[in-house]
Structures are given as structure tokens and as C-alpha cells.
Amino acid sequence: MQELHIKVPGTSETSYRIAIGSGLLGSVWSAVDMAFAKCRRFVITDASVAAAGHLNTLLQGRDAPTYVIHPAGEQSKNIDTVVAIVEAMERAYLGRDTLVMALGGGTVGDIAGFAAAIFKRGVPVVQIPTTTLAQADSAIGGKTGVDSSISKNAFGAFWHPAAVFIDVATLQTLDERQFRAGLVESVKHGLIADQGYFEFIETHLDAILDRDMNTLETLARYNCTIKGRVVEEDPLEKNERRVLNYGHTVGHAVEAAGDYALLHGEAIAVGMIAAGLIEVELGLSKPDRLDRVRRVLEKLGVPVKLPPHLAEDRVIDVMRHDKKAVDQWPRFVLLDQIGQVHCENGQYAVQVGRKIVEKVLTKLK
Amino acid sequence: MQELHIKVPGTSETSYRIAIGSGLLGSVWSAVDMAFAKCRRFVITDASVAAAGHLNTLLQGRDAPTYVIHPAGEQSKNIDTVVAIVEAMERAYLGRDTLVMALGGGTVGDIAGFAAAIFKRGVPVVQIPTTTLAQADSAIGGKTGVDSSISKNAFGAFWHPAAVFIDVATLQTLDERQFRAGLVESVKHGLIADQGYFEFIETHLDAILDRDMNTLETLARYNCTIKGRVVEEDPLEKNERRVLNYGHTVGHAVEAAGDYALLHGEAIAVGMIAAGLIEVELGLSKPDRLDRVRRVLEKLGVPVKLPPHLAEDRVIDVMRHDKKAVDQWPRFVLLDQIGQVHCENGQYAVQVGRKIVEKVLTKLK
């Protein structure tokens, strides 16, 4: 037997730009012209975003091949939609010199990012998020993917955007429930990384809920800075990136066990209360810290308890199938204090006994 | 407007092992045990390879979740097969700790490599090629992909293997036409990179066609060394990797214009003769060099002329749609001498006037 060794060259470090503003959507097309002059564009959006007028604002009367996902929402986040998009790109005679522009919420970003990742072995994507969730979270970090008939994000790729444009003016058309649920990830960013940011949210809740543009721009800047810093440290989610899963162990389980009747942010709100209760049980926190978090979430109008008809057993059962579970029991991200994640032996996701979790779930009823 | 910049960290340089031997298939499973102890395996192969007994040799009586592509061949190289594979992996309760083992020819490697690239945002793949084509070419280099209903390799990813195991004994069961066609890429490697290798093939044609194991091992070592070196220099096909497309401009067009009646290697043989004729026209070569190449290909029993019913116009038309075409006219890789590619202004794919190409196609009738 003979052996050879083939080097896989490391890709060189690059960076991408995040532009944040109010009313910048109309100038995104020209801004992209400079950086991607040689690329032909393909726009991906969904029926809701198009109906809200944002597609017209982006295009400014220009003609560009566009795919409008219909219906908008999670039900279209599947491999069939990606296949339809890739075939639409082929019918538009697009090649490897294509630039995908993803205009919409988290679902559009996930679908379009994944389509870009696998079209002719990968073309760049510009993310233009239009929801509180996507602007705070999903547009940054390079996670893309769609569901199979069996599970969520069964298909996916890490595919970093070539640029991100955040126009907080697009949030004005977002329905109230989506707007509020998406803010939960902002609260999470304060909790895991920046006490000053958490206090800013606490003291500006009225302006946030009034959708004051300046305040929303400040939120976007905090969110992108925090998420960007975490992703830079750990792009492929080996360890540190797990801090972003604060509230997600119970949150994901509540979301799935409730058959996705709650929005993602709503379920994560319940999950963050669960994490806070675990912190109290373990002596990492006093109840007054949890009260501060609960007050913010209540003001946002998101749930802070389990939905009435959801049994704790069902939540436990889903947690045991968590994709990050070890020996069928998940790990938890917990806080030492607001702005600082608890770390044990270098690990940010730690073990918590089943008895404690069961007790906490009972308190969430 | 505010701006932030997010770093995308460069991945660190890694390498993968290529093991070459005769009769090593039965020990691949244990060899992988050491390097990927924590991974659960999923085997992907096709009906022909399984029928030839190679799947049993790999498994050695072990039980492992396996997907057998049926029917074998290009007609299964599509996104539906990849979806079926990913769903089979989910039904086997596999997660991110999966290792895909791809056992088969180029089609199996392309499908399985792509499935690994997109399963839960990417899991490693071990390539175990069983054809002359896959052992010489497609198992190394990280190109994966499948066809859409509209074009070839519309879906794909660059996904380098975690290891490659080449057992030349698996070539004993390959049908004669496939065996011979796959050797054309070996001839190409000699022509573009190593005069000594070309001369080795010239002088060992009888042993090669007798499938002498030692000779086939020598070929594998030459092929992997040459392809590995080119891919290391240019993993994403920006320039130097294009030398691997020698014979492919006309070859691909002949393959497509003839509705894939010719095997890939057979079409590339015609394309290499076309490239040789262009070299003579441009004064890069004397006819005796082309005669040497033609003698080798004729001994291999692959075509050295256009198929009788294929019109030159049809070939020209397909070339104008080549994905690497500029202004609807493709570039050509040409040789200065055996073992050395012609380079103009740092480019390995050069312009050739249409009149010359038309004249050469006439000579290929």
C-alpha cells in the first residue's frame, strides 16, 4: 500500500460589510454595483415582503430576475423551494457570476443563502433582512438551510454573506406579533454579552415598541456587534458560538413540542425564563435578576410561561432528541451575571440534572 | 448610515490521506476506525458496485446503514437522489457526527460527496473510488454535484474528502468499455504535467489493458500526485486548475451534442485530438507529437474522430454555451510540449479563432 497526502489550502481570512441605516433600501442596488460590478443579480424574496412594497423599493423600477417565495413563512422552507429557485436561476441563464440578493425575514435568508451555497458549487449572497429576528440574528453568521419532510434544517451549509444591508425602516411594515417576538434575540444578546445593552433595552422599551428609527438603529448596531464578535471567534459552532443558544434548549423544545404554534422568539422567551430559573436553582443567580428579565419580556408581550395545553413530559421528550444532546440529555447555556455566560472547564454548554429541569418546568406552568 | 465589518476567519490548512493498494478494500473499515472513532458511518454505493461484491468486501459482514443508488449511472445523478439519501440518513437517526463512505464510480462520488456537504450543514466523506475514471480523477479535488432537470451539475459544492482509499483490485470487475474510457484521464495527466508518465503509459499499454495490478498502482500514484498538485495550487478553479480541462472544451461539446452516447473519457479522447490539431495549426506542435497521442488512444480503443452522425455545427453551438465561455466563445487549454501546458499572459485557457476550430472539426470527421 502506498500513501499520498493532499493539502487542502486554508481559505484566507476575509470580511464582509454590514451597513445599518434608516431608509437605505432604495440605494442598496447601487451600493452593490460598486462591490460586485461583474455579477448578474438574482433577487429572492417572499410574497409578504413583496406585498409590503420592499421589493419595489429595492428594485427602483429596475428589471431583474426575481423569485418570490409563495406562501411566505416556514411552510415554504423546504428543499422543493430550493430546487425551484435553482431551476429559475438556470432558466434565467445565470452562471457562476451570479450574485443572489436575499430580501426578507429569517426564512427567506435561510432559503436564499442555501440556494446560493449550492448553485453551481456556490455563488455570493447579499442579505437584506427585513424583520427584527433576521436583523438581530439570522442574517449574520452564515448558517443557512431548509427542512426535509422529517426534520428542520436537515439540508444546509455554512455560507457567509458577501454583505449585509439592514434598513430599520423595513420594520415599520412588520406585523406587531412578529416585531415583538424578534426582539427577544436582542434581549438575549444583552444577557449573554453586554450588561450595558440589556440596560439600554430596559430603559428604551417604549421607544423600541414605538419603532423609533434611531433607537432601532442602535439596537441593530449592538446586535451585529455582539453576534459578529461571537461568530468571528467560532464560525463553525465548535464551542463559543453556543452562547448564542441561551434560552434555546428549553425554547426549541417548547417550539417543537407545541408544533410551532409559538413564533421562534416567543418560545425562546419561555426558554430564557427556564434558564433563569435553573440559574436560581444552581445558586448562580438571585431571583431579582430573573425578575428584571421577566419584566422586560412581559413588556414585550411575549410568553413567559409554558402554553396552557403543553405537558412538561412532551417538552422533556423533545429535549432528549436535541441535536446537541449527549447521552439523550441536552446541555444548557447559563449566566453568571447579566452580560456574562457561565463557563465550566472551558465549556459554555453545561450539564444540568434532570430533576432540576423537571422542577423548573413545573414552575413554568 | 453606520457600517460594521465582520471577519470571516480563514480555515486552517489541512490535508487528507490517499491510500493506494491492491486488495485493501477489506481493511478500509478498520483503517477508518482509527481516524474517525467517534463518527457513525453511512455507506453510499450503487446497484452495480453492490452486485460486483465490493459492498460486501467493504462491510466484511458488518451491519451499517447503507443507501444503494438504483439504477447505477448518470440517470440517478440528480437532486431527487440526494433528497432520498438525506432522508434515509435522518431515518437512521444520524446527526452531525456522521461519516459518509462513498463506494463507487464518479457518479456515486459526486452524489455522496454532495449529500455529505449539505447534510446538517456538512459532514465528512471518505471516497472509495472503484473505476478508472474515479480513481484517476473525480475522487480527488473536492468537486461534488448533481444535475437539475435543466443542466448538469446545477447543484453542487466544493467538499474535499476526509480521506481517499484506492483499491486497484476493484477495477478487475469493471466492464471493458468503462475501464478503457476512464484511462483517457490518465493519458491527459501525462500530457499536461509529466512527460515521463506519458512515456510510462506508452510503454506499458499491454500491462495496463491486462489490468496488471502493479502497473495500475503505478498509474494511481501518478494520477493522484498530478491531480493533487494541481488542486493544491488552485482549489476553487480560479486559473491553474483549468489545465485539467485539456481536451474538455471540444470533448464536453462532443459529449453533450451527442446526447451523452459517448462515455466522458471517450468524448475527452476526441477533444484531446482536437486540441492537438489546434496546436499544429498554431505552430505549437509538429504532427508527430499528435501521432504519438493518437497511437496511445487508438490502442486504448477509444474514439479519435467525431461520431459519424454528429454535425460540426451542433458541436460549435454547444461550445458557445460552455460555462467558461467569454462572449459566447470558449477558451482552450493547449500544450507547448508533452508534459507542459501553454500559458499566455499567465492564463492557461487561451483564445483560439473560430475559423481554426471549424477547420479542426472538419479534420475530425
Structure notes:
- Two copies of one chain form a homodimer.
- The first copy, chain A, is of the alpha/beta class.
- Helices cover 45% and strands 15% of the residues of chain A.
- Chain A has two domains: 17-171, Rossmann fold, CATH 3.40.50; 190-363, Dehydroquinate synthase-like, alpha domain, CATH 1.20.1090.
- The first copy, chain A, is built from 16 helices and eleven strands.
- In chain A, strand 7 and strand 8 form a beta hairpin.
- In chain A, the strands form three sheets. Chain A has a six-stranded parallel sheet. In chain A, strands 7-8 form a two-stranded antiparallel sheet.
- At the A-B interface, strand 1, strand 2, helix 4, helix 5 and strand 7 of A face strand 1, strand 2, helix 4, helix 5 and strand 7 of B.
- Strand 1 of chain A pairs antiparallel with strand 2 of chain B, so a sheet runs across the interface.
Order of strands across the biggest sheet of chain A? 2-9-6-5-3-4
What assembly state would you assign to the polypeptide chains in this entry? Answer: homodimer
Please, what is the average pLDDT of chain A?
Answer: 93
| % residues in beta strands of chain A | 15-25%
Share of helix of chain A, binned: 40-55%
N-to-C order of helices and strands of chain A: EEHEHHEHEHEHEEEHHHHHHHHHEEH
- CATH class group of the largest domain in chain A: Mainly Alpha
Sheet with the most strands of chain A?
6 strands, parallel
